[in-house]
Amino acid sequence: MVVNKNKNQKIIGIVSLKEALSALKVADLQDIRKKLQIKNISSMKKAELIQSLAEAIPVLFRNIISQFDERRLFLIKNIIANNGVMSANNLEIEEMEYLHKTGFMFTSFQNGNPIVMIPLELLPSLVKIIQDETILTDVKRNTEWIKITRGLLYYFGTVPHDELVHLVEKYTPIHPDYLAFNQVIFDAMEYYQEIYINRYGYSYWEVLDPLVILEEQASRKNIDYYPFSKKQLLEAGETDYVECPKGYSQLLSLFTKEYRMSKQEAKEFVEDCIMHAKLGNQPSQLLQYLQTHLTFESLEAVQRLMDAVVLLMNNTREWYLKGYTSEELFAQEKKVLPPLPNKKGEVISLQTRQKVGRNDLCPCGSGKKFKKCCGS
Questions:
Q1: What Pfam families has UniProt attached to this entry (predicted)?
Q2: pLDDT score recorded for residue 195
Q3: % of residues, the chain, pLDDT over 90
Q4: In which residue ranges of the chain is pLDDT below 70?
C-alpha cells in the first residue's frame, strides 16, 4: 500500500479511493464486493472491478456505518482526526481482517507497524456521516444489541435462534427492526469473532459443542434462564470480559504466592479454571488439569488449592445451568470432589507418588482408610 507524505515527511495517508483499491489483490476486491453485496461485477477484470467499486463505495459506506457500534465509530473518528491514517497496534488481527472489506478503510504497515487508512477524498463525507443524528442513534442502538447479545452468550453458552431474540428484547427493543438486528449481529460476528451461529443457534466463541449445552439445559426444565440485569449483560458484553466470581482473588493469590507465577500467568490459569466451571466440569477434572502444570509439595498444599478451586467453581455461572451458579442451585446440583484417578483408574498419593492401597490412609486427609473413604 502506498502512503503519501507532505513536505515534512509526515504520513498523511492515501489520496484517492481508486489508489487504495489498486493496491489490493483481486481476491481482496472480491471480498469488498461481497460485503457490500454489489451484484453483476464479479466477472470483471481487475481494472473494471476497481472502477466499479470506486463508484459504488462512496454511495454505500453510509449503510455500512449504520451497522457499526461505538467502538468502530470511535475508530473512524480517530482516523479522521489523524488526517486519514492512524496506528493499528491496539487492534486485533480479526479487526484488521474486517476493515479492508468495508471498502473505505485500508490496512498497511509503516516502519514495521500496522496502520489503518482512509482515502483523503472520503474524509469530508465521513465527517458529515459520523455527525448525523440518525447514524448516532443507530450506533447507540447497535452497541446495546451487540453487548447484550454477547453478554447473554457469555453466560448461557448457546441459545437457539428464536430464543435469543426473545431474550435480547427483555432488555432492549428489537421489533420492528428485526432485519436490522440480524444484520448488525452478523456484522459484529465478523468484526469481533466472539460469537458464531450454526443450525443449533448462537454460541459464544469458546463453545465447542453447542448441542451438548442445549441438551444439558433442556434436561433442567425446572429452571429458566438466569434473570441477569441489563447492567450485568452490558458489562459481560465488553470484549475480553472475564467474570470474577467469589474465590477469584483467593485463587489468584495462591498461584502467585505458592506457585510463584507472574500475575499475568496466574490470571490465565484462573480464567482456565473459570472456563472449566462454565463447562460444568467437576473439581477432580480441574485438579487433573492443574496437576499437569503444577508441582504439589504436600497434601496440605493440594487441600489449600482445592478449597480455593471449589469456592471459585461453586460461584461461577455455568452454561449447563442456564447462567446460574452451583451455589445458587445447591439443593439440586451439589458438586462433590471424587478421588483423583490415574489413567488406569488407580489412585496415586500426591505425597508419596505411590499407588494407594485399599488399606492405606486415604490421600484426601480424612484419616480413614482409603477403602472406607474415597475408595468405597
A1: SEC-C
A2: 96
A3: 69
A4: 1-13, 331-376
- Report the distance separating Cα 233 and Cα 120, nearest Å: 38
Give yes or no: residues 218 and 253 share one domain. no
Report the alpha-carbon distance of residue 40 to residue 44 in Å, rounded. 9
| Residue 151 · residue 231 · CB < 8 Å | no
Q: What per-residue confidence (pLDDT) applies to 12?
A: 56
Report the distance separating Cα 154 and Cα 248, nearest Å.
18
Rounded CA-CA distance 116/110 in Å is 10
In the numeric block, which cell numbers belong to residue 157? 453458552
Is 270 among the domain residues? yes
Largest CA distance in the chain: 86
* Grid cell at residue 10: 509526515
Handedness of CA 26, 28, 31, 32 (dihedral sign): negative
214 and 313 share one domain: no
Domain of residue 309: give its range: 248-338
Q: What is the pLDDT of residue 353?
A: 40
Residue 362 has a pLDDT of 58
- Residue 321 belongs to a domain: yes
Average predicted confidence (pLDDT) for the chain:
87
Instruction: Write the CA distances from 11 to 7, 83, 87, 90, 125, integer angstroms.
Output: 10, 9, 11, 19, 21
The tally of domains found in the chain comes to: 3
**Residue 364: what pLDDT?**
53
Asked if residue 23 belongs to a domain, the reply is yes
**pLDDT (tens digit per residue) in 118-128:** 999 999 999 99
Neighbour count for residue 18 (Cβ, 10 Å): 16
How many whole angstroms separate alpha carbon 353 and alpha carbon 358?
16
Give a yes or no: residue 242 inside a domain: no
